[in-house]
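In this supplementary section we document a worked example of the pipeline. Step one takes a protein sequence of length 172 as its only input; no multiple sequence alignment statistics are reported here. Step two produces a three-dimensional model, which step three serialises into C-alpha cells for compact storage. The input and output of this example are shown verbatim.
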Amino acid sequence: MDDIPHIPSAPAVEPQPAAPAQHAYLGAPEAPKRKRLGFSITMTEVAVFLLVINLFAVGALYIKQEKEKAPVLATVSVTSLARGYEARFANDPTLTPDVVKLQTNILMASAEKAVQDMSAKQHMIIFARECVLAGETRDLTPDLQAVVDNALKKNAQQTAAGGTDVSPFHVQ
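The serialised model returned by step three reads:
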C-alpha cells in the first residue's frame, strides 16, 4: 500500500448561511401565503363567487315577494249607481224604450269591463259595498261612475252625429 501516492485533502469549507430575504432588510413582515384549493382558486375568489350567488338569490326572493303581494280590497256601491242611472233614464222624457234599453246595455257592459280592468291593473278584489259588513275598503264608485258616464256620452255623441251605435259595449 505504499505505492499509492498520498493526496493531500482539501481544507473543509464551512457552509455559508443563506442570504436573508429582501424584506428582512427593510423590516417589513413577510407577505402571508394564500391558501389555494385544487384548481388554483383562491379563497377570496370563492368568497366573491358565493357573494354573487347570494345577491342573485336575494334578488329573486324579492321579486317573488313583490309579485305575491296580497290584493287590495275595494268596493263599489252598486245600489247607488243603479238608482242614479235609473233616475236619469226615468226623468228624461225624450228617451224611448229602445234607447233606454240601449243605454242600459252600455251601462252594464262598460261597468263590467271597467271593474275587470281595475281589478287586473291595480291588483284588486272588488266587492259590492253592500256585501262588506265591517272593515275599511277603498271606494271605487266615483271611478266606475266616471267610466260609465264617458261611455254613455260617447254613445250620445255618435247618435247625435247621425251615426249608428258603434260602441264596443253594445250588447243586443
